[in-house]
Design goal:
By secondary structure, the chain is mainly α. Among the domains are: 36 residues; 53 residues. It is 63% helix and 8% strand. The termini are far apart.
C-alpha cells in the first residue's frame, strides 16, 4: 500500500466504507425488527396445522376487505350524496349512475324537496352485501 493513493483508489475505499455502514445499519434494523415481533399467542400455538392455516387465510381476506372499503367517517349518522360519494371514493356522478341502475340502495330519507340522505346503517349493510 502506497502513501499516495489515486483518486480512483480513494473513491473505491469510500464506496466500501459506505457499503459496510449500510450493511451494518441493515443488520441493526433487522435485529430490531426481530425484537419487535410479538411472541405467538398461546391459544394459536396449540392449534392444528390446518386450523392455523385457515385462520391465516381468513385474516388475510379480512385485511383485504378492509383495504377495499374505505372507512366511513365515524361521527356521521347520515350522509348526503356528496358526503357519501367522498367517503366511498367515487364521484357524485358515479353515485347517481349507480342509483339509477339500481346498484345502490335508495336514500333513507329525502330532505326538503329533493336532497337524498342515507343512514350509516343502510350504507354499512349495503357494503356488507357487496362482499
Amino acid at each position: 500500500m502506497s502513501l499516495l493513493q489515486t483518486p480512483f483508489e480513494v473513491a473505491r475505499q469510500e464506496r466500501e466504507l459506505a457499503d459496510r455502514r449500510r450493511h451494518e445499519e441493515a443488520e441493526r434494523q433487522a435485529r430490531e425488527a426481530v425484537r419487535a415481533v410479538p411472541a405467538p399467542v398461546p391459544a394459536v400455538q396449540g392449534l392444528d396445522g390446518k386450523i392455523a392455516e385457515r385462520l391465516v387465510v381468513v385474516l388475510e381476506r379480512l385485511a383485504a376487505a378492509l383495504e377495499r372499503h374505505p372507512d366511513l367517517p365515524s361521527e356521521r349518522l347520515a350522509f348526503r350524496a356528496e358526503e357519501l360519494a367522498d367517503a366511498l371514493g367515487v364521484s357524485r356522478r358515479a353515485l347517481d349512475r349507480d342509483r339509477s341502475a339500481g346498484a345502490f340502495p335508495p336514500p333513507s330519507r329525502i330532505i326538503g324537496a329533493k336532497t337524498p340522505v342515507w343512514s350509516r346503517a343502510a350504507i354499512e349493510e349495503w357494503l356488507a352485501t357487496r362482499k
